[in-house]
Structure formats: structure tokens, C-alpha cells
Design a protein that fits this description.
- The chain is mostly helical and 695 residues long.
- The protein is built from 38 helices and no strands.
- The longest helix has 28 residues, at 667-694.
Length: 695
């Protein structure tokens, strides 16, 4: 979807040539002598010395016989062989204009040759009456080659060099049209307004072009008015009149009136029947097809698009647009059964009609439909980055009726990207993506995007910023479960950030809206956290206990149970703590490291109180089957068990616990366990020696 490197290099070289010419009026050697030679050889003519009159007569004769291509080459050969002849100027002019006619009628036009010939004329005969017109033709040739920068450079230079030229209205119209092509719509509109103000005949003669621009600017009413003013000065039943009426017909079909739409279609159908210009007829059929498509008649529209393709070459604008429309209609129909048509929708070859519009006519209104359609295609096959670029291009070029659809797609892509960043712990990347694409974030109506961004900020300890993002997210659309989670995160963040007043206010609100619902368990839990942070341990215990009583709290019950156990420990209510732990273990609310850690905490506290038996019970519960068998916590528990049993004289069992602890990961505790084992050996030896001595 981007210009190839070779094309960029070629454009840069061409632009450099133009700059050199504009600055220094360098005369670029004409390539046409070779053309003339090739033509002579092609015509089977021998290279013989020709006199000026003979060659001039021959050129005229070829032209009169309708042999345009040989005539163009013959006139050019005359100029090359006799540059000082009185007829040289006319010969070069004839050659340039004939090659222009050939280019206009060709499917593979050589506009570079046309531009070179007119450039040579403007340089060799700069003081003549037609030099100005030649300058304009050079600009046009560059525009036809899509070298738009160079074309604009020639137009601007013309206006400086010939400020009072009779061709000024024509050049201004060309410039306005060119500005539209390169996306500078406001500047184009400013130029077009000059034509409305200036009512002179020269300016009115350009009304057809200006009307077409106003139409592309979305102002069909002005376009119709300009056409109506222009038709009086155009010959009846002429192709020029038909082209002007085509603008009116198209304008009427774009107005919000069934009556005007019908009238516009009638004008266009009339032109399709009376015009002999296939290029115009193709555009007319395309405009009718667009109008018919807008009314939902896809089959009729496709029939008209097929007519366009039968009338003109594949590179004509109407043909490019028609191929795209046919592809778009087909894709929309295939999406009705995506699974059946998956292979076709995923095939990159189907992108080509869309790309032809975007590469050749990026500033035309239809390009927005191409961006939208291609975005859907690449998104369907999982190319989210390409889809994102196309969606952004759609928005940057003015958006349209599908703006909400595009925002939805782009927001969905951002959600997946941020989810991926959070999963990998790349919180700064998630925030940077949010910051860079903030314009899209602001329009995205779903709250999950801001919800995820808030989590990233929270993980980065940017609590104030996360709080603001969460607050904004509340006003957006959320599934019920996500909205409740968002509320809970906000409350937890207030507590974490020390804003107890805001936390209290929010939790009171949540207690009202989630009364006797599953979510009330989380509200009680957060209330317990708030009371703990405030130092109100008894109230915290009460809140955690209430959270435990809420049914259907699922996996969150383990969090509530752990919180209750810890606050009971803080209250030194070890009997209640033991009861809750036993129930939590039995009902699988707590398991694994969490359960082991809490039983270890209970055992440590019992041991500190001198309650060896109760400590032993807690420690043994901490290493029951199904709980972790490795780690520093396990090592410490075995060491404590060894100490308790050793103090009771149960050395055979204490020795097993010491041996386990000696193999643990903490070197300090391993050393302590080894020392205990060594002391046990010493004690056994001493005991044995005493036994011998006692005998």
C-alpha cells in the first residue's frame, strides 16, 4: 500500500529535473529525434536527404490522411532537422499537440514525451503567443503522470511569470483541481470561491471544472448552480455540453431528495444515449450506478459497473472505480457467510481493486470506501497493524458514515495490543500506546480500553493518574461484571492511595447498588481493607466475616478467607483463626502456599506463646498432603517441628524433620538443622557413655 522504492527514486529524479529547469531554464534535449527515426523505419522509408518543403508537405499530408502518429513524428523530425526554418515553431507545436491527442486516447499514454515537447517549445519560443499555453501543457503532462508536486511547481511559476495572462482562469481552475488531488481541500475551496465572485466570461468558462470540485467538496447545490450558469455559453448538443451536464446529473443524484435524484438519473441516462465519447459515457454509467447502489439495488448497480468496464480501458478512472465497487459488493455478500467464503476473503489478491483506488485516486471521496473495505479485509485475515493504519487513514481523511465502525475496530485493536502488553508486564508500553492514540481512545465508546490503561498505570504506581482514568472509564459502556470490577478497582485504589474519604463514599454507594448481590462480598472485603488501613481492626474483622457469608462469591472467597484469617491473627484471636483455617482447608477455599503460610503463621504465634502442642498441630496441618513440599517456608516449618519434638524427647521423629530442613534452600536454616543433628549425635553418644559407666 506504499509506493515502491523505485517509484520514489524516479519521482525524486523527475522533481530535480523540474527544479533545474525552473531555476535555470535548462533546455532538456528532446528525445523525439529517435522517435522520428523509429517512425521512418516502421514506415519502411529509407533515410534520404529531405528538403524542408518536402518534409513539411509530407507531414501535412499524413495529418490530412488521419495518420496521427506518423504525422506527429514527421513534424517533430522537421523541427529537429530544420530548427531555424520559419515553419520550425509550427512544426514543434503540431508535433506536441498531436502527441497529446495520442496520449489522451491511449491506454498506455506517454505523457513524459508530451511534457518534453511542450517544455522544448516554451524554451525555444518563449517570446511567442503560444509559449504561455505550452507552459500550461507541461504542467498538465506532469499532473497526468501523477507527478503532482512538479505540476504544482509549473502552475505556480506560470502565475508569477504571466500574472496578466488570458489563461489565468484556466490555470487557477487547474490549480484548484490539483490541490484537491493532493488533499489540500481548504486551499482548493479558497480558489473556487474566486470563481463565484468573478462573473467575467473567462472565469465562467471554467465553471464546469469548478462545479466538479464543489461537488467533490460535498456541495452539490453550488455545483448545480455553476453548471446552470455555464450551459448558456456552450454549443448545443456538443460533447463539451454533455460533460458539463454530467456534473449536474451527478450532483442531483447526491442531494437528499428523491425527486432530484430521479432527475439526476434521467440526465445521466440521456447523456449515455446521446454522447459518442466512451470516456464520458463510462463516467455517466458509473455515476448512475453509484446512485442506484445508494438506494440498495446492488444487482442493478453491478450491471451498470459492468457496462463501464466494457466501454473503456482498465486504467480509466471510471473503470478503476467500477472494479472496486464490484469487488466491494462481492466481499459484502461473502461476509454474510464468512466460514464458507473464508478462503476468498483471506486471499490478498482480492485487495488489488481496493489498492488501485488508493494508489491512483487517494483524494477522491470513493477512496474512503476503499480504505474502509480494505481495513475489513486485512482485519479478517488478522493483519491488525495494517488494519489500524487503514482505519487511521480513513479518519484522517475526514471519516464518513462508517466513522463509528472504524473507531470500534481501531479501539478493539488497541484493546488487544494493551492486553498483550499487560500480559507481558510491559506496562509502560501499554501507557505509551494509550498516549499516542489518545484521539481514538477519546471516541471509543467501550470502557474496557480505559479500564486496561488504568491497570497499567496502577501497576506503575501512578495512582493519581490511574484514578482519573478509572473515573473516565465509568461513564463508558461495560458488561455488568466488568463495570463492577471497575468500581472495585477504583475503591481499592483510593484505599491504596490513602484517600479514605473517597473510598468511604464510593463503598457506601456500592453497598446500596449491590445490596444482597454476589458483588456485595467484594464491597464487604474492601470495607474490611479500608478499616484495616484506618486501624479499626475489630470493624475490619466484622467486614471480612460478612464477606465470607455472601454466597456464590467463587474464587474470591479464598481472598476473603485469607483476609479474615490475617485480621484474626492481628487481633490475637488464635482459636477463631484456627477454626476459620480448618473450614477453609476443608472446603478448599484456601490451598497451596496461601494455606501453608497461614498455618505456619498460626504455628509461629502459638510457639511464641509457649503453646507447643497447639503449635505442633498447626505446623503439621501446614505440611499435610497436597501442600507444597519445597521452599523456605516448608524448611522453616520442619525446623520448628524438629525443635518441638526434640524438646519433648521424641528424638527419632525430630531427627527426620531436621534432616529434611538441612536439605532446604535457605543456607542459614540448613546450617541450624545440621547443628541440631550434630547435637543430637553428641547427646546420643553421651547417653550411651553414661549407660556404660552406670554398669
Amino acid at each position: 500500500m506504499k509506493l515502491s522504492q523505485a517509484r520514489l527514486v524516479n519521482e525524486s529524479r523527475r522533481f530535480l529535473v523540474v527544479v533545474l529547469f525552473l531555476l535555470f531554464e535548462v533546455t532538456i534535449p528532446s528525445p523525439v529525434p529517435a522517435v522520428g527515426t523509429e517512425l521512418s523505419a516502421a514506415d519502411g522509408q529509407e533515410s534520404v536527404e529531405e528538403l524542408p518543403d518536402q518534409l513539411w508537405f509530407k507531414s501535412q499530408e499524413l495529418l490530412e490522411d488521419g495518420k496521427i502518429f506518423p504525422a506527429a513524428g514527421s513534424f517533430n523530425r522537421f523541427f529537429v532537422k530544420f530548427p531555424d526554418h520559419p515553419q520550425a515553431e509550427e512544426a514543434l507545436w503540431q508535433s506536441a499537440t498531436l502527441y497529446r491527442e495520442i496520449a489522451e486516447a491511449s491506454e498506455q499514454p506517454d505523457w513524459e514525451k508530451v511534457g518534453n515537447l511542450f517544455r522544448e517549445y516554451s524554451s525555444a519560443f518563449k517570446g511567442t503567443a503560444r509559449a504561455e499555453e505550452a507552459y500550461i501543457e507541461v504542467a498538465r503532462a506532469h499532473i497526468e503522470m501523477k507527478s503532482l508536486r512538479e505540476g504544482l511547481s509549473y502552475i505556480n511559476l506560470f502565475m508569477k511569470r504571466y500574472p496578466s495572462s488570458i489563461f489565468t482562469p484556466r490555470v487557477l481552475a487547474m490549480k484548484a483541481d490539483l490541490l484537491m488531488k493532493i488533499g489540500r481541500r481548504e486551499e482548493a475551496l479558497e480558489l473556487c470561491r474566486k470563481f463565484i465572485v468573478n462573473k467575467s466570461e473567462d472565469y465562467r468558462h471554467q465553471y464546469p471544472i469548478i462545479a466538479s470540485i464543489f461537488l467533490d467538496l460535498g456541495q452539490p447545490d453550488i455545483a448545480v448552480s455553476l453548471v446552470d450558469q455555464a450551459v448558456s455559453s456552450i454549443a448545443p448538443l456538443s460533447e463539451e455540453l454533455f460533460r458539463v451536464l454530467a456534473v449536474k446529473g451527478r450532483s442531483l443524484t447526491l442531494m437528499d431528495s428523491d425527486e432530484k435524484t430521479k432527475k439526476g438519473q434521467e440526465i445521466l441516462f440521456y447523456l449515455a444515449n446521446v454522447s459518442e465519447d466512451n470516456k464520458l459515457r463510462s463516467q455517466v454509467f458509473f455515476d448512475v450506478a453509484e446512485s442506484v447502489l445508494k438506494s440498495g439495488e446492488k444487482a442493478a448497480a453491478q450491471h451498470l459497473y459492468d457496462k463501464v468496464l466494457a466501454l473503456v480501458g482498465k486504467n480509466e478512472r471510471a473503470a478503476v472505480f467500477s472494479r472496486f465497487r464490484i469487488s466491494l459488493i462481492g466481499d459484502e455478500q461473502r461476509r454474510a457467510n464468512e466460514l464458507q467464503n473464508k478462503a476468498v476473503l483471506e486471499n490478498p489478491a482480492g485487495d488489488q481493486p481496493y489498492l488501485e483506488v488508493l494508489e491512483n485516486f487517494p483524494q477522491y471521496p470513493i477512496a474512503q470506501d476503499a480504505r474502509l473495505g480494505l481495513m475489513k479485509r486485512v482485519l479478517f485475515r488478522g493483519e491488525s497493524d495494517n488494519a489500524f493504519d487503514l482505519g487511521k487513514a480513513y479518519l484522517q481523511n475526514g471519516g464518513g458514515d462508517a466513522r463509528k465502525t472504524v473507531i470500534g475496530a481501531l479501539g478493539g485493536i488497541l484493546v488487544k495490543k494493551i492486553e498483550g502488553a499487560l500480559a507481558e508486564g510491559k506496562n509502560p508500553d501499554a501507557f505509551e500506546l494509550y498516549r499516542r492514540e489518545h484521539a481514538i481512545v477519546q471516541e471509543y465508546p467501550e470502557g474496557r480500553l480505559l479500564f486496561l490503561v488504568g491497570q497499567a498505570l496502577e501497576a506503575m504506581n501512578l495512582y493519581d493518574q490511574a484514578s482519573v482514568v478509572y473515573y473516565r472509564a465509568v461513564a463508558l459502556n461495560h458488561p455488568d461484571d466488568q463495570k463492577s470490577e471497575l468500581y472495585m478497582r477504583r475503591a481499592a485504589l483510593y484505599i491504596k492511595n490513602g484517600d479514605f474519604t473517597a473510598a468511604e463514599r464510593l463503598l457506601n454507594y456500592l453497598a446500596d447498588i449491590y445490596q444482597e448481590q454476589r458483588e456485595s462480598g467484594e464491597v464487604f472485603h474492601l470495607t474490611g481493607q479500608l478499616r484495616s488501613a484506618q486501624g479499626k481492626i475489630d470493624e475490619a474483622a466484622e467486614a471480612f466475616a460478612r464477606a465470607m457469608k455472601v454466597p456464590e462469591t467463587g474464587e474470591r472467597r479464598s481472598v476473603y478467607a485469607a483476609a479474615l484469617v490475617r485480621v484474626l491473627h492481628a487481633q490475637k484471636k488464635l482459636e477463631e483463626m484456627a477454626v476459620v483455617l480448618a473450614e477453609a482447608a476443608d472446603k478448599k477455599w484456601l490451598a497451596g502456599e496461601e494455606l501453608q503460610t497461614l498455618y505456619g503463621l498460626l504455628g509461629d504465634t502459638r510457639l511464641e506463646r509457649g503453646e507447643g502442642g497447639l503449635a505442633l498441630k498447626a505446623y503439621r496441618a501446614a505440611i499435610e498432603d497436597g501442600l507444597p513440599t519445597e521452599g523456605e517456608r516448608v524448611q522453616t516449618i520442619h525446623l520448628r517441628l524438629g525443635d518441638i519434638l526434640a524438646s519433648w524427647g521424641i528424638t527419632d521423629k525430630s531427627r527426620k524433620h531436621y534432616q529434611f530442613a538441612s536439605k532446604g534452600s535457605n543456607e542459614r536454616w540448613s546450617q541450624v538443622a545440621l547443628e541440631r543433628l550434630q547435637q543430637d549425635k553428641i547427646d546420643q553418644s553421651v547417653a550411651g557413655l553414661r549407660g556404660v559407666l552406670d554398669k
